[in-house]
Design goal:
The structure is a single chain. The protein has 208 residues and is mostly beta strands. The protein is built from no helices and 14 strands. The strands form four sheets. It has a four-stranded antiparallel beta sheet with strand order 3-4-5-6, with no helix packed on it. The chain has a four-stranded antiparallel beta sheet with strand order 7-8-9-10, with no helix packed on it. Strands 11-12-13-14 form a four-stranded antiparallel beta sheet, with no helix packed on it. The radius of gyration is 23 Å and the shape is globular. The protein starts with a strand and ends in a 19-residue tail after the last strand.
Length: 208
């Protein structure tokens, strides 16, 4: 492309020394989010082979395995969708109002992946990654928020720990064996241990 000077005269692009193996991705936006200034061992410049229009700002994008095949899980705006790498949309969740993807994993240890999502500040929803179907939903009390949480890998699946903001309760959900109906392993009142809105921080460690 040619750049234009203030007097209207065209000029060639500015030449810069680029080390071998370093390729800059096209700068497609004003904040240069499409840059890749990382030296590698590529001998030829990469070529774009596929793209998709998302219709919104991309908040999350990850390659996932579904039925043994690679696909892209993309959150654009509030719409979450699973797209094959050839461009076909497997499913799309536009009315769920997803705000954040918390984790993509085998929650129940069965080998089938699920995704835990936030749909608002108080609500998390677990969906089946293959079908997009909703498996489980949990919502905290009014005026509380889901901010402080951790996941723990167990031999049979995952555990989800959450200490909602502005609450003195802690929760542990066990997904092992059935991601659609997780077991509330424990719920504990920590009144007197800390004040609402001022704790705690979660650290998962074998202390003994």
């Amino acid at each position: 492309k040619l750049a234009t000077l203030a007097d209207g005269a065209p000029r060639p692009p500015r030449e810069v020394g680029i080390p071998p193996g370093l390729w800059l991705a096209p700068r497609k936006d004003s904040t240069n989010l499409a840059r890749a200034d990382i030296a590698g061992q590529m001998t030829t410049a990469p070529e774009q082979v596929w793209s998709m229009t998302t219709g919104g700002d991309v908040k999350f994008a990850r390659n996932v395995k579904v039925n043994g095949r690679d696909a892209a899980l993309v959150l654009a705006g509030s719409t979450l969708q699973l797209v094959s790498w050839s461009g076909e949309i497997a499913w799309q969740k536009g009315r769920l109002g997803v705000t954040e993807v918390l984790r993509v994993d085998e929650f129940d240890g069965s080998g089938n992946s699920s995704a835990l999502l936030k749909t608002d500040a108080r609500t998390v929803v677990l969906i089946n990654l293959t079908t997009g179907g909703e498996l489980w939903q949990w919502r905290v009390e009014p005026s509380q928020f889901i901010l402080n949480y951790k996941f723990q890998r167990t031999p049979a699946g995952l555990r989800f720990y959450c200490f909602p903001q502005y609450s003195v309760y802690g929760y542990c959900f066990e997904f092992s064996g059935n991601s659609g109906i997780p077991n509330l392993r424990w719920q504990k009142d920590y009144s007197g241990k800390y004040r609402r809105g001022f704790g705690p921080a979660i650290i998962l460690k074998d202390m003994d």
